[in-house]
Structure prediction request, 212 residues.
Amino acid sequence: MFDYNYIAIEGNIGAGKTTLAKFLSNAFQSTLLLEEFSENKFLKEFYKTGEYAIHAEIQFLLDRSKQLNQFFQTNPSLIISDYFPSKSLIFSQMNLSEKEFTIIKDLSATLFTGIPKPQILLFIDRNIDDVMNNIHKRGRSYEKKMNYNYIEKLAEGYELWLENLSIPVIRIDANSIHLDKPDTLKESFFKLLSMPHISTQRKIKIDSILTA
Prediction:
C-alpha cells in the first residue's frame, strides 16, 4: 500500500499517539503494535515516589524486547505502532545518573539487535498546556504527580532525540487532526504516506495536505 510498511507514531505523554495509531490501523487494515506499560510496577512507583528509576527502565527494555521479538515472528505486512522503541532512552537520560544511563544504553543496543526499526515517524506536535489537560483527563493514578516542568523537560528531550533519527520525521500539528472527520482524515494520511519523504524533519497540518 505504501513505501513504508512500519510506521511509528510518537509525541509527548498525552499527545494522542494511541488514539491516532488505532485510527490509522483501522483505516488501512494494518497490524497494530501498541506500547505495553501497564504491568511495569517500577514505573508506577517511580512516578509516585521518584524511586526505582533504573528498575523501571530495565523492565521496559526487557518487556519491549520480548514483545517485539514475538511480534515480528508473525511477519506482518503493514504495521502502525504508537511508539518508537528507542524513545525510552529519552526518559533514561532524563531520570538516571550518567553511569546508569550508560548501562541502559548498552543494554538497549544488545536487546534490540536484529529487531526491525520503523521506517517513518509521525510525530504529534501538541503544546504543553494541552498535553497537561489530556493527562489530567485520562486520570491515570500514577501520572497525577506529573507537573509542567517534567513535561516541558520531556519535550526538550524529544527535540534532541528527533535530531538524531535517520528516517523521515513528519511533525503533525495536533490541532489539525480531526478525528470527527474520519473519511477526510483517512484520505489525508493516505496521500501523506504515499509520498516519498527524505530523511529529515518536515512540519505539516494534516487537514491541509489534500490541497498541498
